[in-house]
From TrEMBL, chain A:
It comes from Exocentrus adspersus. Belongs to the translin family. It is found in: Cytoplasm; Nucleus. The keyword Membrane does not apply. This is Translin-associated protein X. The keyword Nucleus applies. GO terms for cellular component: cytoplasm; nucleus. Pfam families: Translin (PF01997).
TrEMBL record, chain B:
InterPro entries: Translin, Translin_C, Translin_fam, Translin_N, Translin_sf. One of its GO terms (biological process) is RNA metabolic process. This is Translin. GO terms for cellular component: cytoplasm; nucleus. GO terms for molecular function: endonuclease activity; hydrolase activity; metal ion binding; RNA binding; sequence-specific DNA binding; single-stranded DNA binding. Ring-shaped heterooctamer of six TSN and two TSNAX subunits, DNA/RNA binding occurs inside the ring. DNA-binding protein that specifically recognizes consensus sequences at the breakpoint junctions in chromosomal translocations, mostly involving immunoglobulin (Ig)/T-cell receptor gene segments. Seems to recognize single-stranded DNA ends generated by staggered breaks occurring at recombination hot spots. PANTHER family: TRANSLIN AND TRANSLIN ASSOCIATED PROTEIN X. Belongs to the translin family.
Length: 275, 232
Protein backbone atom coordinates (compact mmCIF):
# COMPACT_ATOMS: atom_id res chain seq x y z
CA UNK A 1 0.00 0.00 0.00
CA UNK A 2 2.46 2.60 1.15
CA UNK A 3 4.74 1.40 -1.60
CA UNK A 4 2.24 2.04 -4.33
CA UNK A 5 1.32 5.42 -3.00
CA UNK A 6 4.96 6.34 -3.11
CA UNK A 7 5.21 5.29 -6.71
CA UNK A 8 2.30 7.41 -7.73
CA UNK A 9 3.70 10.53 -6.19
CA UNK A 10 6.98 10.07 -7.94
CA UNK A 11 5.36 10.06 -11.32
CA UNK A 12 3.80 13.40 -10.53
CA UNK A 13 0.31 12.24 -11.44
CA UNK A 14 -2.65 13.22 -9.34
CA UNK A 15 -2.76 11.22 -6.14
CA UNK A 16 -5.54 8.72 -6.57
CA UNK A 17 -4.61 6.94 -3.36
CA UNK A 18 -6.39 9.61 -1.38
CA UNK A 19 -9.67 7.79 -1.24
CA UNK A 20 -8.07 4.69 0.20
CA UNK A 21 -6.03 6.78 2.58
CA UNK A 22 -9.09 8.61 3.73
CA UNK A 23 -10.97 5.38 4.25
CA UNK A 24 -8.09 3.99 6.25
CA UNK A 25 -7.88 7.05 8.42
CA UNK A 26 -11.57 7.06 9.06
CA UNK A 27 -11.69 3.39 9.96
CA UNK A 28 -12.03 3.01 13.66
CA UNK A 29 -10.74 0.11 15.64
CA UNK A 30 -14.18 -1.46 15.84
CA UNK A 31 -14.60 -1.59 12.10
CA UNK A 32 -16.09 -5.04 11.46
CA UNK A 33 -13.60 -5.78 8.71
CA UNK A 34 -10.67 -5.04 10.96
CA UNK A 35 -12.13 -7.00 13.84
CA UNK A 36 -12.61 -9.93 11.51
CA UNK A 37 -9.12 -9.75 10.10
CA UNK A 38 -7.51 -9.44 13.49
CA UNK A 39 -8.98 -12.80 14.33
CA UNK A 40 -7.75 -14.30 11.04
CA UNK A 41 -4.35 -12.83 11.71
CA UNK A 42 -4.07 -14.70 15.00
CA UNK A 43 -5.22 -17.89 13.38
CA UNK A 44 -2.72 -17.52 10.56
CA UNK A 45 0.14 -16.68 12.91
CA UNK A 46 -0.60 -19.72 15.03
CA UNK A 47 -0.45 -21.91 12.00
CA UNK A 48 2.74 -20.40 10.64
CA UNK A 49 4.43 -20.50 14.06
CA UNK A 50 3.57 -24.13 14.56
CA UNK A 51 4.85 -24.90 11.07
CA UNK A 52 8.13 -23.12 11.76
CA UNK A 53 8.61 -24.89 15.06
CA UNK A 54 8.19 -28.22 13.32
CA UNK A 55 10.58 -27.23 10.54
CA UNK A 56 13.22 -26.44 13.14
CA UNK A 57 12.74 -29.76 14.91
CA UNK A 58 12.90 -31.55 11.59
CA UNK A 59 16.09 -29.77 10.60
CA UNK A 60 17.75 -30.93 13.80
CA UNK A 61 16.64 -34.47 13.04
CA UNK A 62 18.22 -34.23 9.60
CA UNK A 63 21.53 -33.07 11.04
CA UNK A 64 21.62 -35.74 13.70
CA UNK A 65 20.57 -38.47 11.23
CA UNK A 66 23.37 -37.47 8.86
CA UNK A 67 25.85 -37.72 11.73
CA UNK A 68 24.54 -41.14 12.67
CA UNK A 69 24.95 -42.30 9.09
CA UNK A 70 28.50 -40.97 9.13
CA UNK A 71 29.14 -42.85 12.33
CA UNK A 72 27.70 -46.05 10.87
CA UNK A 73 30.10 -45.93 7.97
CA UNK A 74 32.86 -46.42 10.54
CA UNK A 75 31.61 -49.95 11.10
CA UNK A 76 33.59 -50.81 8.04
CA UNK A 77 36.18 -52.62 10.12
CA UNK A 78 37.18 -56.16 10.88
CA UNK A 79 37.06 -55.68 14.63
CA UNK A 80 33.72 -57.13 15.67
CA UNK A 81 33.61 -55.47 19.08
CA UNK A 82 34.15 -52.03 17.62
CA UNK A 83 31.44 -52.62 15.07
CA UNK A 84 29.09 -53.69 17.78
CA UNK A 85 29.72 -50.67 19.96
CA UNK A 86 29.22 -48.30 17.02
CA UNK A 87 25.89 -49.88 16.15
CA UNK A 88 24.87 -49.68 19.76
CA UNK A 89 25.70 -46.01 19.90
CA UNK A 90 23.78 -45.37 16.67
CA UNK A 91 20.78 -47.22 18.03
CA UNK A 92 20.82 -45.12 21.17
CA UNK A 93 21.04 -41.90 19.25
CA UNK A 94 18.21 -42.96 16.95
CA UNK A 95 16.11 -43.80 19.94
CA UNK A 96 16.88 -40.39 21.40
CA UNK A 97 15.51 -38.78 18.24
CA UNK A 98 12.33 -40.81 18.56
CA UNK A 99 11.93 -39.73 22.14
CA UNK A 100 12.89 -36.10 21.77
CA UNK A 101 12.34 -34.38 18.42
CA UNK A 102 9.74 -36.72 16.98
CA UNK A 103 7.84 -36.79 20.20
CA UNK A 104 7.76 -33.02 20.29
CA UNK A 105 6.53 -32.92 16.69
CA UNK A 106 3.87 -35.48 17.54
CA UNK A 107 2.77 -33.27 20.41
CA UNK A 108 2.58 -30.25 18.14
CA UNK A 109 0.37 -32.23 15.80
CA UNK A 110 -1.89 -33.62 18.46
CA UNK A 111 -5.48 -32.71 17.58
CA UNK A 112 -4.34 -31.08 14.35
CA UNK A 113 -4.72 -32.30 10.80
CA UNK A 114 -1.16 -33.64 10.64
CA UNK A 115 -1.16 -33.65 6.85
CA UNK A 116 -1.29 -29.87 6.94
CA UNK A 117 2.14 -29.86 8.59
CA UNK A 118 3.56 -32.97 7.05
CA UNK A 119 5.68 -31.05 4.61
CA UNK A 120 7.44 -29.36 7.52
CA UNK A 121 8.97 -32.59 8.79
CA UNK A 122 9.03 -34.95 5.81
CA UNK A 123 12.72 -34.21 5.14
CA UNK A 124 13.77 -35.00 8.70
CA UNK A 125 11.64 -38.11 8.74
CA UNK A 126 13.13 -39.45 5.52
CA UNK A 127 16.65 -38.81 6.72
CA UNK A 128 15.80 -40.57 9.95
CA UNK A 129 14.48 -43.58 8.04
CA UNK A 130 17.66 -43.63 6.01
CA UNK A 131 19.76 -43.76 9.18
CA UNK A 132 17.46 -46.23 10.89
CA UNK A 133 17.31 -48.71 8.02
CA UNK A 134 21.06 -48.42 7.54
CA UNK A 135 21.57 -49.24 11.19
CA UNK A 136 19.13 -52.15 11.03
CA UNK A 137 20.79 -53.46 7.94
CA UNK A 138 24.28 -53.39 9.45
CA UNK A 139 23.00 -55.18 12.50
CA UNK A 140 20.72 -57.81 10.97
CA UNK A 141 21.33 -57.58 7.20
CA UNK A 142 17.64 -56.90 6.87
CA UNK A 143 15.30 -53.97 7.37
CA UNK A 144 12.04 -53.70 9.23
CA UNK A 145 8.67 -53.19 7.64
CA UNK A 146 6.81 -49.90 7.70
CA UNK A 147 4.36 -51.17 10.29
CA UNK A 148 7.15 -51.99 12.75
CA UNK A 149 8.76 -48.59 12.41
CA UNK A 150 5.40 -46.88 12.67
CA UNK A 151 5.06 -48.47 16.09
CA UNK A 152 8.17 -46.60 17.25
CA UNK A 153 6.40 -43.34 16.60
CA UNK A 154 3.47 -44.07 18.87
CA UNK A 155 3.58 -42.36 22.21
CA UNK A 156 1.74 -42.43 25.42
CA UNK A 157 1.92 -40.13 28.39
CA UNK A 158 -0.25 -38.78 31.14
CA UNK A 159 -0.64 -35.38 29.59
CA UNK A 160 -2.02 -36.36 26.19
CA UNK A 161 -2.85 -40.04 26.52
CA UNK A 162 -2.09 -41.98 23.38
CA UNK A 163 -0.90 -40.17 20.31
CA UNK A 164 1.35 -40.81 17.37
CA UNK A 165 3.34 -39.08 14.70
CA UNK A 166 1.89 -39.26 11.23
CA UNK A 167 4.32 -41.43 9.24
CA UNK A 168 3.13 -41.79 5.64
CA UNK A 169 4.47 -44.81 3.82
CA UNK A 170 5.78 -42.48 1.14
CA UNK A 171 8.35 -41.18 3.59
CA UNK A 172 9.35 -44.71 4.42
CA UNK A 173 9.92 -45.67 0.80
CA UNK A 174 11.73 -42.43 0.02
CA UNK A 175 13.96 -43.00 3.04
CA UNK A 176 14.76 -46.46 1.76
CA UNK A 177 15.69 -45.05 -1.61
CA UNK A 178 18.19 -42.77 0.13
CA UNK A 179 19.42 -45.68 2.19
CA UNK A 180 20.56 -47.47 -0.97
CA UNK A 181 22.92 -44.55 -1.58
CA UNK A 182 24.59 -45.38 1.73
CA UNK A 183 24.83 -49.01 0.70
CA UNK A 184 26.57 -47.96 -2.46
CA UNK A 185 29.13 -45.95 -0.48
CA UNK A 186 29.53 -48.81 1.90
CA UNK A 187 30.12 -51.16 -1.02
CA UNK A 188 32.97 -49.03 -2.35
CA UNK A 189 34.45 -48.60 1.10
CA UNK A 190 34.41 -52.30 1.95
CA UNK A 191 36.26 -52.89 -1.24
CA UNK A 192 38.87 -50.50 0.09
CA UNK A 193 39.60 -52.84 2.96
CA UNK A 194 39.42 -55.82 0.65
CA UNK A 195 36.13 -57.26 1.87
CA UNK A 196 34.92 -58.62 -1.41
CA UNK A 197 32.10 -60.80 -0.21
CA UNK A 198 30.41 -57.90 1.47
CA UNK A 199 30.33 -56.08 -1.88
CA UNK A 200 28.35 -58.84 -3.51
CA UNK A 201 25.97 -59.00 -0.57
CA UNK A 202 25.33 -55.28 -0.62
CA UNK A 203 24.83 -55.26 -4.34
CA UNK A 204 22.36 -58.08 -4.06
CA UNK A 205 20.36 -56.26 -1.42
CA UNK A 206 20.13 -53.12 -3.51
CA UNK A 207 19.02 -55.26 -6.44
CA UNK A 208 16.10 -56.48 -4.36
CA UNK A 209 15.14 -52.93 -3.48
CA UNK A 210 15.42 -51.91 -7.10
CA UNK A 211 13.10 -54.76 -8.03
CA UNK A 212 10.64 -53.38 -5.52
CA UNK A 213 10.75 -49.94 -7.08
CA UNK A 214 10.38 -51.35 -10.57
CA UNK A 215 7.31 -53.26 -9.49
CA UNK A 216 5.42 -50.26 -8.18
CA UNK A 217 2.29 -49.45 -10.09
CA UNK A 218 1.48 -45.73 -10.51
CA UNK A 219 3.01 -44.36 -7.34
CA UNK A 220 1.87 -40.93 -8.45
CA UNK A 221 4.72 -39.24 -6.66
CA UNK A 222 7.43 -37.48 -8.64
CA UNK A 223 9.88 -37.75 -5.79
CA UNK A 224 9.68 -41.52 -5.99
CA UNK A 225 10.57 -41.71 -9.66
CA UNK A 226 13.42 -39.26 -9.12
CA UNK A 227 14.86 -41.29 -6.31
CA UNK A 228 14.33 -44.56 -8.14
CA UNK A 229 16.41 -43.07 -10.92
CA UNK A 230 19.25 -42.21 -8.51
CA UNK A 231 18.92 -45.70 -7.08
CA UNK A 232 19.43 -47.25 -10.50
CA UNK A 233 22.57 -45.17 -10.96
CA UNK A 234 23.94 -46.33 -7.61
CA UNK A 235 23.10 -49.88 -8.48
CA UNK A 236 24.88 -49.59 -11.82
CA UNK A 237 28.00 -48.46 -10.00
CA UNK A 238 27.81 -51.34 -7.58
CA UNK A 239 27.24 -53.83 -10.34
CA UNK A 240 30.27 -52.49 -12.12
CA UNK A 241 32.29 -52.91 -8.94
CA UNK A 242 31.16 -56.53 -8.65
CA UNK A 243 31.96 -57.11 -12.28
CA UNK A 244 35.46 -55.71 -11.81
CA UNK A 245 36.08 -57.83 -8.76
CA UNK A 246 35.07 -60.90 -10.63
CA UNK A 247 37.03 -60.23 -13.76
CA UNK A 248 40.18 -58.69 -12.30
CA UNK A 249 40.12 -60.09 -8.80
CA UNK A 250 42.58 -62.78 -9.78
CA UNK A 251 44.99 -60.37 -11.39
CA UNK A 252 45.79 -57.90 -8.62
CA UNK A 253 45.73 -57.86 -4.82
CA UNK A 254 42.29 -57.12 -3.46
CA UNK A 255 43.22 -53.94 -1.65
CA UNK A 256 44.34 -52.48 -4.98
CA UNK A 257 41.05 -53.16 -6.68
CA UNK A 258 39.66 -49.98 -5.24
CA UNK A 259 42.10 -47.84 -7.17
CA UNK A 260 41.28 -49.71 -10.34
CA UNK A 261 37.60 -49.13 -9.88
CA UNK A 262 37.91 -45.54 -8.79
CA UNK A 263 39.90 -44.78 -11.88
CA UNK A 264 37.08 -46.16 -13.98
CA UNK A 265 33.79 -44.32 -13.95
CA UNK A 266 32.73 -45.04 -10.40
CA UNK A 267 32.33 -41.83 -8.52
CA UNK A 268 31.03 -42.25 -5.01
CA UNK A 269 30.81 -38.53 -4.42
CA UNK A 270 28.09 -37.40 -6.73
CA UNK A 271 25.26 -38.26 -4.40
CA UNK A 272 24.33 -35.73 -1.76
CA UNK A 273 25.76 -36.37 1.61
CA UNK A 274 28.77 -36.92 3.65
CA UNK A 275 31.40 -39.02 2.02
CA UNK B 1 4.78 -59.35 -7.05
CA UNK B 2 7.70 -61.66 -6.42
CA UNK B 3 7.25 -63.12 -2.95
CA UNK B 4 10.58 -64.89 -2.93
CA UNK B 5 12.14 -61.48 -2.55
CA UNK B 6 11.74 -60.56 1.13
CA UNK B 7 12.19 -56.85 0.46
CA UNK B 8 9.33 -56.89 -1.99
CA UNK B 9 7.12 -58.95 0.27
CA UNK B 10 7.74 -56.97 3.47
CA UNK B 11 8.31 -53.49 2.17
CA UNK B 12 6.90 -52.95 -1.27
CA UNK B 13 3.76 -55.05 -1.24
CA UNK B 14 2.27 -53.16 1.72
CA UNK B 15 3.32 -49.93 0.04
CA UNK B 16 1.55 -50.91 -3.16
CA UNK B 17 -1.61 -51.60 -1.18
CA UNK B 18 -1.25 -48.23 0.44
CA UNK B 19 -0.92 -46.55 -2.96
CA UNK B 20 -3.89 -48.46 -4.32
CA UNK B 21 -6.24 -47.48 -1.55
CA UNK B 22 -5.10 -43.89 -1.78
CA UNK B 23 -5.75 -43.92 -5.53
CA UNK B 24 -9.24 -45.23 -4.92
CA UNK B 25 -10.03 -42.36 -2.57
CA UNK B 26 -8.59 -39.86 -5.03
CA UNK B 27 -10.71 -41.33 -7.81
CA UNK B 28 -13.85 -40.90 -5.71
CA UNK B 29 -12.88 -37.34 -4.86
CA UNK B 30 -12.29 -36.48 -8.50
CA UNK B 31 -15.75 -37.74 -9.36
CA UNK B 32 -17.33 -35.62 -6.63
CA UNK B 33 -15.36 -32.55 -7.60
CA UNK B 34 -16.79 -32.81 -11.08
CA UNK B 35 -20.20 -32.43 -9.50
CA UNK B 36 -18.99 -29.39 -7.62
CA UNK B 37 -17.27 -27.78 -10.56
CA UNK B 38 -20.39 -27.86 -12.69
CA UNK B 39 -22.45 -25.57 -10.41
CA UNK B 40 -19.29 -23.54 -9.87
CA UNK B 41 -19.21 -22.74 -13.55
CA UNK B 42 -22.92 -22.08 -13.64
CA UNK B 43 -22.74 -19.61 -10.79
CA UNK B 44 -19.78 -17.87 -12.39
CA UNK B 45 -21.76 -17.48 -15.57
CA UNK B 46 -24.92 -16.31 -13.81
CA UNK B 47 -23.08 -13.58 -11.95
CA UNK B 48 -21.40 -12.23 -15.07
CA UNK B 49 -24.65 -10.38 -15.65
CA UNK B 50 -23.34 -7.61 -13.40
CA UNK B 51 -20.92 -6.59 -16.12
CA UNK B 52 -23.49 -5.95 -18.82
CA UNK B 53 -26.67 -5.00 -17.09
CA UNK B 54 -27.03 -2.59 -14.27
CA UNK B 55 -30.67 -3.08 -13.47
CA UNK B 56 -31.15 -3.96 -9.84
CA UNK B 57 -33.90 -6.48 -10.54
CA UNK B 58 -31.69 -8.48 -12.85
CA UNK B 59 -28.89 -8.38 -10.37
CA UNK B 60 -31.10 -9.59 -7.56
CA UNK B 61 -32.52 -12.28 -9.78
CA UNK B 62 -28.99 -13.39 -10.59
CA UNK B 63 -28.04 -13.49 -6.92
CA UNK B 64 -31.13 -15.53 -6.15
CA UNK B 65 -30.43 -17.96 -8.95
CA UNK B 66 -26.79 -18.22 -7.83
CA UNK B 67 -27.86 -18.94 -4.29
CA UNK B 68 -30.16 -21.70 -5.53
CA UNK B 69 -27.35 -23.19 -7.57
CA UNK B 70 -25.18 -23.27 -4.47
CA UNK B 71 -27.48 -26.05 -3.28
CA UNK B 72 -25.70 -28.36 -5.74
CA UNK B 73 -22.35 -27.24 -4.37
CA UNK B 74 -23.47 -28.08 -0.88
CA UNK B 75 -24.57 -31.51 -2.01
CA UNK B 76 -21.15 -32.04 -3.50
CA UNK B 77 -19.32 -31.09 -0.33
CA UNK B 78 -21.65 -33.28 1.70
CA UNK B 79 -20.60 -36.20 -0.49
CA UNK B 80 -16.98 -35.20 -0.08
CA UNK B 81 -17.37 -35.21 3.67
CA UNK B 82 -18.28 -38.88 3.44
CA UNK B 83 -15.27 -39.81 1.33
CA UNK B 84 -12.47 -37.90 3.06
CA UNK B 85 -11.20 -39.96 5.99
CA UNK B 86 -11.18 -38.21 9.38
CA UNK B 87 -8.22 -35.94 9.92
CA UNK B 88 -7.02 -36.19 6.33
CA UNK B 89 -8.47 -33.05 4.81
CA UNK B 90 -5.04 -31.72 3.97
CA UNK B 91 -3.89 -35.00 2.53
CA UNK B 92 -6.25 -34.62 -0.40
CA UNK B 93 -7.01 -30.94 -0.48
CA UNK B 94 -5.18 -30.40 -3.77
CA UNK B 95 -8.27 -31.81 -5.41
CA UNK B 96 -10.63 -29.16 -4.15
CA UNK B 97 -8.47 -26.21 -3.20
CA UNK B 98 -8.93 -24.29 -6.42
CA UNK B 99 -12.66 -24.94 -6.69
CA UNK B 100 -13.11 -23.96 -3.05
CA UNK B 101 -11.28 -20.70 -3.58
CA UNK B 102 -13.49 -19.88 -6.58
CA UNK B 103 -16.59 -20.71 -4.61
CA UNK B 104 -15.47 -18.50 -1.75
CA UNK B 105 -15.09 -15.73 -4.24
CA UNK B 106 -18.57 -16.32 -5.64
CA UNK B 107 -20.16 -16.43 -2.21
CA UNK B 108 -18.37 -13.20 -1.30
CA UNK B 109 -19.54 -11.58 -4.52
CA UNK B 110 -23.16 -12.53 -3.86
CA UNK B 111 -23.06 -11.11 -0.35
CA UNK B 112 -21.43 -7.94 -1.60
CA UNK B 113 -24.08 -7.48 -4.28
CA UNK B 114 -26.90 -8.17 -1.89
CA UNK B 115 -25.76 -6.30 1.17
CA UNK B 116 -22.61 -4.43 0.30
CA UNK B 117 -20.72 -5.99 3.16
CA UNK B 118 -17.72 -8.26 3.42
CA UNK B 119 -18.60 -11.88 3.96
CA UNK B 120 -16.99 -13.55 6.94
CA UNK B 121 -15.47 -16.99 6.98
CA UNK B 122 -18.32 -18.55 8.89
CA UNK B 123 -20.97 -17.40 6.43
CA UNK B 124 -18.80 -18.50 3.54
CA UNK B 125 -18.51 -21.96 5.05
CA UNK B 126 -22.29 -22.06 5.42
CA UNK B 127 -22.94 -21.06 1.83
CA UNK B 128 -20.48 -23.68 0.58
CA UNK B 129 -21.92 -26.24 2.95
CA UNK B 130 -18.61 -27.07 4.63
CA UNK B 131 -19.57 -25.79 8.06
CA UNK B 132 -20.25 -28.28 10.83
CA UNK B 133 -18.82 -31.14 8.86
CA UNK B 134 -16.80 -33.84 10.55
CA UNK B 135 -14.09 -34.36 7.97
CA UNK B 136 -13.99 -31.20 5.89
CA UNK B 137 -13.77 -27.55 6.75
CA UNK B 138 -13.05 -24.22 5.14
CA UNK B 139 -9.36 -23.47 5.06
CA UNK B 140 -8.66 -19.91 6.12
CA UNK B 141 -6.24 -19.31 3.29
CA UNK B 142 -8.70 -20.55 0.69
CA UNK B 143 -11.26 -18.12 2.02
CA UNK B 144 -8.76 -15.25 1.96
CA UNK B 145 -7.79 -16.17 -1.56
CA UNK B 146 -11.45 -15.92 -2.51
CA UNK B 147 -11.59 -12.40 -1.07
CA UNK B 148 -8.61 -11.34 -3.15
CA UNK B 149 -10.31 -12.69 -6.24
CA UNK B 150 -13.34 -10.66 -5.27
CA UNK B 151 -11.27 -7.47 -5.33
CA UNK B 152 -10.20 -8.15 -8.91
CA UNK B 153 -13.75 -8.80 -9.98
CA UNK B 154 -14.92 -5.61 -8.29
CA UNK B 155 -12.25 -3.59 -10.07
CA UNK B 156 -13.73 -4.76 -13.32
CA UNK B 157 -17.23 -4.15 -12.01
CA UNK B 158 -16.30 -0.55 -11.12
CA UNK B 159 -15.16 0.14 -14.65
CA UNK B 160 -18.26 -1.39 -16.20
CA UNK B 161 -20.62 0.36 -13.81
CA UNK B 162 -19.36 3.67 -15.11
CA UNK B 163 -19.90 2.53 -18.66
CA UNK B 164 -23.52 1.86 -17.82
CA UNK B 165 -23.91 5.18 -16.08
CA UNK B 166 -23.86 4.04 -12.48
CA UNK B 167 -21.52 6.54 -10.88
CA UNK B 168 -22.30 5.60 -7.30
CA UNK B 169 -21.18 2.01 -7.51
CA UNK B 170 -17.45 2.75 -7.90
CA UNK B 171 -17.53 4.80 -4.70
CA UNK B 172 -19.05 1.93 -2.80
CA UNK B 173 -16.53 -0.47 -4.31
CA UNK B 174 -13.67 1.85 -3.55
CA UNK B 175 -14.56 2.04 0.11
CA UNK B 176 -15.17 -1.68 0.29
CA UNK B 177 -11.88 -2.66 -1.30
CA UNK B 178 -9.96 -0.11 0.75
CA UNK B 179 -11.32 -1.72 3.88
CA UNK B 180 -10.47 -5.14 2.57
CA UNK B 181 -6.97 -3.95 1.86
CA UNK B 182 -6.66 -2.55 5.36
CA UNK B 183 -7.77 -5.89 6.71
CA UNK B 184 -5.23 -7.83 4.71
CA UNK B 185 -2.49 -5.58 5.95
CA UNK B 186 -3.10 -6.90 9.44
CA UNK B 187 -2.02 -10.35 8.34
CA UNK B 188 1.53 -11.60 8.56
CA UNK B 189 1.74 -13.45 5.30
CA UNK B 190 4.46 -15.91 4.54
CA UNK B 191 6.17 -15.90 1.21
CA UNK B 192 3.54 -18.14 -0.33
CA UNK B 193 0.85 -18.05 -2.98
CA UNK B 194 -1.46 -16.02 -0.77
CA UNK B 195 1.24 -13.41 -0.35
CA UNK B 196 1.76 -13.23 -4.10
CA UNK B 197 -1.93 -12.87 -4.69
CA UNK B 198 -2.13 -10.17 -2.02
CA UNK B 199 0.70 -8.27 -3.69
CA UNK B 200 -1.54 -8.00 -6.75
CA UNK B 201 -4.33 -6.44 -4.70
CA UNK B 202 -2.75 -3.01 -4.98
CA UNK B 203 -3.33 -3.03 -8.73
CA UNK B 204 -7.02 -3.60 -8.15
CA UNK B 205 -7.10 -0.82 -5.58
CA UNK B 206 -5.32 1.47 -8.00
CA UNK B 207 -7.66 0.67 -10.85
CA UNK B 208 -10.71 1.37 -8.73
CA UNK B 209 -9.28 4.62 -7.48
CA UNK B 210 -8.53 5.73 -10.99
CA UNK B 211 -12.16 5.21 -11.85
CA UNK B 212 -13.21 7.24 -8.81
CA UNK B 213 -10.71 9.90 -9.71
CA UNK B 214 -11.99 10.14 -13.28
CA UNK B 215 -15.51 10.56 -11.97
CA UNK B 216 -14.54 13.15 -9.40
CA UNK B 217 -12.57 15.45 -11.67
CA UNK B 218 -15.54 15.57 -14.01
CA UNK B 219 -17.87 16.36 -11.15
CA UNK B 220 -19.81 13.17 -11.72
CA UNK B 221 -19.69 12.08 -8.14
CA UNK B 222 -22.47 13.30 -5.91
CA UNK B 223 -22.40 12.93 -2.23
CA UNK B 224 -25.54 11.05 -1.25
CA UNK B 225 -26.86 13.77 1.08
CA UNK B 226 -26.32 17.04 -0.72
CA UNK B 227 -26.28 15.80 -4.32
CA UNK B 228 -23.62 18.43 -4.80
CA UNK B 229 -20.44 17.46 -6.63
CA UNK B 230 -17.88 16.54 -4.02
CA UNK B 231 -14.19 16.41 -4.15
CA UNK B 232 -13.15 12.89 -3.48
Amino acid sequence: MSKFRGNRNKRGKPVVGDKAKETLENMDEDNPVLVMFRQYSTELDNKHDRYERIVKLSRDVTIEAKRIIFLLHNTNTDIESKKKSIIEEAENRLQTLVESNFKTIAKELHNQDAYQYHRAYTAGLQEFIEALTFCQFLKNTSIESWANIDKLLKYRDDELGEYNLLFPQYDFILGIADFTGELMRRCINTLGVGNVEECFKLCDFVRHINTGFLGLISPGNKEISRKAYVLRQSLAKMELVCYNIQIRGTEIPKHMLISVIESSDVNPDDDEGFF
Amino acid sequence: MDVSNPIVADIFSPFQEYINSEQDVREEIRKIMKDVEKPLREITTILQVIHHDQSLEKMHAACLKARETFENVRNGYAALNKIVPPGQYYRYNDHWRYATQRLCFLAALIVFLEKGILINKETTAQILGVDDKANICLDLEDYLMGLLNLASELARYAVNSVTYGDYERPLQISKFVAELNAGFRLLNLKNDSLRKRFDALKYDVKKIEEVVYDLSIRGLVHSPNTSEPVNV
